[in-house]
Amino acid sequence: MSKSYGAMSVAQLSSLIQGGAADPVDVAEAVFDSIAHYADKAVFTMLTESRAMEEALASSKRLREGRSLGLLDGIPITWKDLFDIEGLATTAGSVVLAGDAPAKHDATVVALLRQAGMVAVGRTNMSEFAFSGLGINPHYGTPINPRSTDLPRIPGGSSSGAGVAVAAGLVPVAMGTDTGGSVRIPAALSGIVGYKATRGRYAMEGVYPLAKSLDSLGPLCRTVRDAVWIDAAMRGVTAPSVVERPLQGMELVVPENIVFDGAEPGVVAAFEAALERLQKAGANVARIVIPAFNEIFDLMTRYGPLVTAEAFALHHERLAGPDADRMDRRVVMRTRLGSKTTLPDYLRILEARSRLIADVERLVGDRLIAFPSVAHVAPPIEPLEQDDELFFATNNKTLRNTAVGNFLDWCGVSIPCGTGEAGMPVGLLLSATARRDEALLGTALAAEAIIRDDFA
């Protein structure tokens, strides 16, 4: 077995590459060797070995000639199967798009990270059309959570393969998308870091949508610092501008409503222990009710979820034709529910959303918000595949905590904070209101070690 470069953080591997202790070609070869020897073949939908080796060779040449492109030069990365990669069809985890014309260009963020010297290893698996927080895919298989020790458990979705690729030590970073939690959920369930940026922070050209008013992007990686480096490159910035913020006097809000409803005792215990450590380090914690949380779910009950309405608008022609029979039945069932949201209903949702965003910004101010990323640890796969009612109930609960952040246009980062049932990871979600990504990441940089408490 080759060296486990994929098990390193971006910062660790960058230090080796920039210092000459590791060559990008050797790193790329080792990564592909690790993938070849990894038993679970559902992690990737496609490998881009020819492209990766070409990029690694170019990186190696630059480094030998003293022309490094920066901290990310030669670092391997995988892309969720929603991002256009030149010469390949973008299938979005579905067989119905497999015959589409290949992309003429890389997605904008793919091109930006290539310009930073990163090496594209392949495409990771996902929930079909990104429409589930569980990560189950009947077409390309369901990746198994690498933290499972008792029986196969879900990876979390929709960026399922991305979370597994990092948690299993195959690559140091994987790119995901997040419409209702699809970066933060797999990160939390597999014990890694997942950062969802404020919607609009990155260019979305060449990214297959789910719900454009909610879609956002972000990396799954090992540390907050890795996320900071990737964030800068995704914005075309040559160096990160995030500054670590002091924990002393940090103001945190912990909601008392919705996010703890039905939470597993182990999840609550891990979260509360991390919160206590933060308080001992100087953080000030206020436990408050955020009325907007209840109203968001009241809106969903009355008019239907915003994501479902927009997903139906995107896919309604497909659902009316033969392609529906080739799709995951659960994706079809959930998407068709969007037909019940009328245009007046949709406009009422948008109007209420604008008001609620403003209400929460006044209530929270410059404080950060903290609560469990997911109210439970990763459940077993098999019962969810066999029981649609259980699937939908579990999916709703899995998405609940993270989805409020998408609706309110927050940014957020999930950090491992301990373990719950069956020794499975628990994530603590730090969030900030829209466009406060720098403050969020700066605080997360300082808080990460305390939140993790040596969790590995």
Radius of gyration: 21 Å
Please, how many helices?
Answer: 15
| Biggest sheet architecture | 11 strands, mixed
In terms of structural class, how would the helical and strand content be classed? Answer: alpha/beta
CA distance, first residue to last residue: 22 Å
Order of strands across the widest beta sheet?
Answer: 1-3-2-4-6-5-10-11-9-7-8
Mean pLDDT: 97
Strand tally is 11
Helices and strands, in order, run as HHEHEHEHEHEEHEHEHHHHEHHEEH
**In percent, how helical is the residue content?**
40-55%
| Estimated share of beta-strand residues | 5-15%
3D shape: globular
List low-confidence stretches: none
SSE topology sketch:
Elements: H1 10-18, H2 24-37, E1 44-47, H3 49-64, E2 76-80, H4 108-115, E3 119-124, H5 160-167, E4 173-178, H6 184-190, E5 193-196, E6 216-221, H7 224-234, E7 251-255, H8 265-280, E8 284-288, H9 291-303, H10 306-319, H11 329-336, H12 343-364, E9 368-372, H13 381-386, H14 388-407, E10 411-419, E11 425-432, H15 437-452
Parallel strand pairs: 2-3, 2-4, 7-8, 7-9
Antiparallel strand pairs: 1-3, 4-6, 5-6, 5-10, 9-11, 10-11
Helix pairs in contact: 2-3, 7-15, 8-15, 9-12, 10-11
Main features:
alpha/beta, eleven-stranded mixed beta sheet, 41% helix, 11 strands, single chain, 14% strand, 456 residues, globular
